[in-house]
Specification:
Number of helices: 6
Radius of gyration: 16 Å
Order of helices and strands: HHHHEHHE
Shape: globular
Largest sheet: 2 strands, parallel
Length: 119
């Protein structure tokens, strides 16, 4: 029963992580790392598939091993974040949400920029 719960949690986390690529309020990396953990305890097949994924695999390995991320991935992450926040900022009227978006932009940008840059 625990394996089933972890498998479902891993799939949900993977879906949220994938959405996080496009939505600035959802962090991608923590959800992908949670998925990796859940799959490591519930499904070796899904665990291996996530680590070998063309899009996320190397990124997850590098981040998990505390190697950092490539300059290309930093640029992509910051660009997508900037575009997403700018678009969201233009579509909302609430001052509180705009302040929250600015805080998210600053926090996530700081985190990405402080990660080690690998080749």
């Amino acid at each position: 029963m625990l394996k089933t719960f972890l498998l479902i949690l891993g799939i949900i986390s993977l879906l949220l992580g994938t959405l996080g690529v496009f939505l600035p309020l959802l962090p991608t990396t923590p959800f992908l790392l949670l998925s990796l953990y859940c799959f490591s305890k519930s499904s070796k097949k899904f665990h291996k598939a996530l680590l070998e994924n063309k899009i996320f695999g190397q990124y997850i390995k590098d981040y998990q091993e505390k190697k950092g991320i490539t300059l290309k991935n930093k640029i992509i992450a910051l660009s997508v974040l900037g575009v997403s926040v700018t678009y969201s900022f233009s579509k909302i009227a609430s001052l509180h949400l705009k302040i929250f978006l600015i805080i998210v932009l600053i926090g996530v940008s700081f985190h990405i920029l402080t990660l080690k840059t690998i080749k």
